[in-house]
Backbone:
């Protein structure tokens, strides 16, 4: 028997309320495989409690955040993006010598893998999410060259490396790894998120740094250079 969600999407598609290409596959994959852990529409509850209890990062703005090619490939072969999971405080523990924090890997859950067809359909559907929201200004990233100070902004001057790693084994673990940021993220999204993380997640712990536009452009330009070997 077809699930109620599938029937509903079919009915809505028939009366022109849902994109039929999305209803035929991508929306079903998101509903069946992703919705239990990720918010696919902007949550009405913007409380800290919801942020604490969510099982995966919000995807309601995935279409203005991710690059589609990366999405399709990653969904077929997921790799670690958040070393400490979606909520670092839940999995971190003090090391035996009390000098550093370590991650309790037993508390982390592996992401599901999708086959090629489902990954492609899901990627297409995800790229539709958030495009109708006023979150990212198109053309916000203007400077294609990071400049000589850009890496230093990340590693030393602005403290990004205390939470994020730009290469394996180097940098903090409480935030998403950025070693493939240039493959994964859209430049305009990076500009918007660096400028105001709380616009996307009201209680997110990443600070608003108050950088000048010149520094945001340099930092984004540096992050764009960070790509996986197969994407270079």
Residues:
């Amino acid at each position: 028997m077809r699930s109620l969600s599938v029937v509903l999407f079919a009915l809505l598609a028939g009366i022109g309320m849902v994109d039929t290409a999305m209803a035929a596959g991508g929306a079903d994959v998101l509903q069946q495989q992703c919705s239990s852990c990720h918010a696919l529409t902007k949550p009405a509850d913007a409380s800290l409690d919801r942020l604490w209890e969510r099982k995966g990062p919000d995807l309601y703005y995935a279409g203005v955040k991710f690059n589609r090619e990366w999405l399709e490939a990653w969904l077929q072969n997921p790799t670690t993006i958040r070393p400490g999971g979606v909520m670092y405080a839940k999995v971190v523990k003090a090391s035996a010598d009390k000098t550093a924090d370590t991650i309790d890997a037993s508390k982390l859950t592996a992401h599901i893998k999708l086959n090629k067809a489902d990954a492609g359909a899901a990627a297409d559907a995800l790229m539709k999410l958030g495009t109708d929201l006023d979150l990212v200004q198109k053309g916000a990233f203007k400077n294609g060259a990071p400049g000589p100070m850009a890496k230093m902004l990340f590693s030393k001057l602005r403290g990004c490396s205390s939470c994020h790693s730009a290469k394996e084994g180097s940098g903090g673990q409480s935030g998403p790894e950025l070693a493939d940021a240039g493959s994964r993220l859209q430049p305009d999204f990076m500009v918007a998120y660096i400028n105001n993380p709380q616009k996307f997640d009201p209680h997110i712990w990443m600070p608003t740094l108050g950088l000048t536009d010149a520094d945001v452009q340099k930092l984004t330009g540096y992050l764009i250079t960070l790509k996986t070997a197969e994407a270079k």
